[in-house]
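Input record, target 12 of the design panel.
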């Protein structure tokens, strides 16, 4: 420390440099860098008055510290304070992360239950089971209860819709059957051309309505819970194909079966029979006279069996392949269809845990069907000859 009084050195280190050329304010410290023995130092300067009038005097005080010392002190502070604080921050971060994960576990269990319930449901028509949580915060319990109430409301709405569709189809079948019978009787008894023409139109409209009611009824049945059982898919396909042989011959169409002799799938016989009926009916209706329609059963993947109906008719444009299974969509204006047959096929395929397929067969034909899970790993057998 050096004391200056009228440029007289009193005490300290006389080598401390003077401040830079700038005004010094009395009573306010001045900080600046300087060199002492080729070492950079930080200097603090303060000038004060002391004494009384008329002998008032000014005292200058300078204090210098080497920057090396300052850097060493800063490094010691970093090592002694920041490092423990950093470690503490990491530990606290890990604790907070673990706490957040533990707090989110009930939501994870809730998500897993909803996902498992969705996997158990083959399609949107299956009601989801209620969500059950054994241990969870009150907020999560409230969320689960709200979801359960929503699921119950959706299930009730679905059941009402199914009952209405089923009841309406049942109620309409009897009067339509009577209308068709009476119209056919009137056609048989009438010999006037104009009357017969009008009766024929009435009969065609009644038959289309009856077909639509039948399709709606099958659609309602396909969306209900049905038991599954192992069955021989090729045997079922051959039986259904034989039932359509007479109608195919009357339409001038060659109908046959090609594929596996035995292949076991887990399914419902009536629903699969209805799906194949719709596929064959669709092929016979649109393929045209002189066409060839083939029912095929084969293994399409290691654990999947394919049930398809293939024809060499006019087919469907590639742009409309995605519309084939849409409800009430029709590929042509040819009378007789209602646009629900392939929709029912899709519902039945989803009910069995499978999927539908539609692709061009040959140059212009159509191959439509569904893939179904195998009941077991079957051994491949030689395809049968066309029947």
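The sequence produced for target 12 reads:
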């Amino acid at each position: 420390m050096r004391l200056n009084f009228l440029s007289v050195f009193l005490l300290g280190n006389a080598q401390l440099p003077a401040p830079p050329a700038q005004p010094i304010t009395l009573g306010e410290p001045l900080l600046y860098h300087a060199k002492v023995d080729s070492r950079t130092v930080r200097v603090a300067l303060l000038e004060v008055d002391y004494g009384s009038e008329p002998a008032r005097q000014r005292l200058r005080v300078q204090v210098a510290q080497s920057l090396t010392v300052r850097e060493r002190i800063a490094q010691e502070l970093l090592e002694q304070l920041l490092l423990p604080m950093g470690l503490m921050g990491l530990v606290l971060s890990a604790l907070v992360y673990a706490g957040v994960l533990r707090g989110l576990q009930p939501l994870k269990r809730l998500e897993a239950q909803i996902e498992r319930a969705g996997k158990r449901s083959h399609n949107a028509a299956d009601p989801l089971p209620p969500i059950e949580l054994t241990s969870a915060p009150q907020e999560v319990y409230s969320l689960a209860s709200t979801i359960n109430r929503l699921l119950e409301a959706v299930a009730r709405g679905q059941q009402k819709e199914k009952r209405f569709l089923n009841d309406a189809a049942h109620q309409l079948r009897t009067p339509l059957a009577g209308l068709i019978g009476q119209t056919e009787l009137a056609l048989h008894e009438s010999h006037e051309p104009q009357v017969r023409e009008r009766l024929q139109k009435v009969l065609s409209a009644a038959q289309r309505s009856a077909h639509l009611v039948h399709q709606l009824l099958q659609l309602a049945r396909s969306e209900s819970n049905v038991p599954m059982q192992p069955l021989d898919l090729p045997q079922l396909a051959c039986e259904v194909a034989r039932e359509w042989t007479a109608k195919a011959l009357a339409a001038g169409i060659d109908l046959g079966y090609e594929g596996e002799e035995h292949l076991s799938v887990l399914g419902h016989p009536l629903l699969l029979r209805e799906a194949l009926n719709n596929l064959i009916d669709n092929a016979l209706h649109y393929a045209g006279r002189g066409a060839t329609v083939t029912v095929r059963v084969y293994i399409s993947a290691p654990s999947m069996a394919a049930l398809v109906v293939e024809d060499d008719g006019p087919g469907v444009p590639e742009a409309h392949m995605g519309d084939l299974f849409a409800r009430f969509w029709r590929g042509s204006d040819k009378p007789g269809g209602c646009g629900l047959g392939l929709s029912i096929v899709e519902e039945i395929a989803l009910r069995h845990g499978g999927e539908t397929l539609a692709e061009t067969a040959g140059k212009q034909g159509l191959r439509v069907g569904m893939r179904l899970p195998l009941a077991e790993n079957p051994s491949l057998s030689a395809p049968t000859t066309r029947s």
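Residues 227-373 form a domain with the Heat Shock Protein 90 fold (CATH 3.30.565.10).
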